Amino acid sequence: HVFIGVCYPYLSGSLFAQPEIKYVKELKGKTIAVSGIGATSHFSAIMAVQHFGLDPNREVKFLAAGGQPEALASLQRNLIDAAMLYPPITRQARRLGKVELINVAELKIPYTSAALVSTERTIKTKHQVLDRFMASMAEALKVARTDKERSIAAMARFLGVKDHAALEESWVAYHDGFSKDMAITPEQIQTVLDQM
Q1: Mean per-residue pLDDT pooled into runs of 10, the chain (196 residues)
Q2: Bond before 186 cis per omega within 30 degrees
Q3: pLDDT at position 9, please?
Q4: Helix, strand or coil for residue 137?
């Protein structure tokens, strides 16, 4: 398989914690819920705690919650100390009084989020279809970056979410980070390799 583009070139997610925890460093000895061990949420949490000087292998514990609703439920029931969450569920976490310690996207850690992958065979035999697909993706990313209402309407339709404020939170969280050229950089690949 061959990388042909990336839609979002950074790690993302927000580390939410119980209200008494104000700083990432206070997670030392604590438990952080992620969707699964080895999942992007786990990787984002590792990078977040490392950025603030904690050793993710010795100073924090990770719990595989199973998904975003389960991670939030564990946080709500005080079964864990923090959780790596993504919009639109971040809105619910705020409403429950949980504290956003860090938005990982703000760290601009190069990553292949929403990578586009093909096979060499498809690239050779269906390059015209692939060219049209890539042009469509470039246009969609431009709309996602610049047209808030159209983006929110598309998210509502395809995600089946009716909460306009939650959809708006999703758009605000991601629109600035969407790739302008879908280029894949060696730094993005290296970030992935460093965690293997």
Answers
A1: 93 96 97 94 95 96 95 96 95 96 94 92 94 95 96 93 91 92 93 82
A2: no
A3: 94
A4: helix
CA 80 vs CA 11, 22, 93, 107, 112: distances in Å: 23, 15, 13, 24, 29
Secondary structure of 25-94 in the HEC alphabet? HHHCCCEEEECCCCCHHHHHHHHHHHHCCCCCCCCCEEEECCCHHHHHHHHHCCCCCEEEECCCHHHHHH
Buried b (16+ CB within 10 A) or exposed e, 99-134: bebbebbeeebbbbbbbbebeeeeeeeeeeebeeee
Longest Cα separation, the chain: 57
Q: In the prediction, which pLDDT does 195 show?
A: 77
Residues in the chain: 196
What six digits make up the tokens of 139?
A: 């246009």
What pLDDT was estimated at residue 159?
A: 87
User: What pLDDT does residue 194 have?
Assistant: 82
Q: How far apart are the first and last CA of the chain?
A: 18
Q: What is the pLDDT of residue 1?
A: 87
* The pair of three-digit structure tokens given for residue 98, joined into one six-digit string: 């949980």
Closest CA to 42 of 54, 56, 25, 55: 56
Give me the phi and psi of 178, to 5 degrees please. Answer: -60, 140
Tally Cβ neighbours within 10 Å of residue 64. 16
How far are the Cα atoms of 51, 91, 97, 120 from residue 32, in angstroms, in the given order? 15, 18, 17, 39
